[in-house]
Design a protein that fits this description.
The protein has one helix spanning 43-50, and strands spanning 5-11, 15-18, 23-26, 30-40, 58-62, 72-75, 78-87, 92-98. By secondary structure, it is mainly β. Strands 1-4-5-8-7-6 form a six-stranded antiparallel barrel. A two-stranded antiparallel ribbon has the order 2-3. A hairpin with a 4-residue loop joins strand 7 and strand 8 (92-98). The two termini are 27 Å apart. The mean pLDDT is 89.
């Protein structure tokens, strides 16, 4: 499988207390670049997984296992929330919808 699409696994930045203002400041998100095969999720598959058609649903396939924790996936500047993830012996597949 050809992995020609850039996908970022994003983790929220840490909240740090700022004593001068008395507020919590959220740090920059941490982005981890991975190469993947990204395609639109088919209508039949969407209906089976989500019970209805979801606009902008994508299927993301990695050629390797991604074991780190993350909050969302970013693809082409858009945030996606993972609805379903599957781990195979050597790769991951994520079914995602736009946030």
């Amino acid at each position: 499988m050809r992995a020609a699409d850039r996908v970022y696994f994003v983790t929220e930045g840490e909240e740090v207390f700022d004593p001068s203002t008395g507020d919590y400041i959220v740090g920059e998100p941490i982005r981890d670049l991975q190469w993947a095969n990204v395609s639109d999720t088919g209508t039949e598959r969407m209906t089976l997984l989500f019970g209805s058609i979801q606009q902008g649903a994508k299927t993301i396939r990695l050629n390797n296992l991604y074991k780190k924790q993350f909050d969302w996936i970013e693809f082409e500047g858009k945030k996606y929330k993972v609805q379903l993830s599957r781990k195979y012996q050597r790769r991951n597949v994520f079914e995602v919808v736009g946030k």
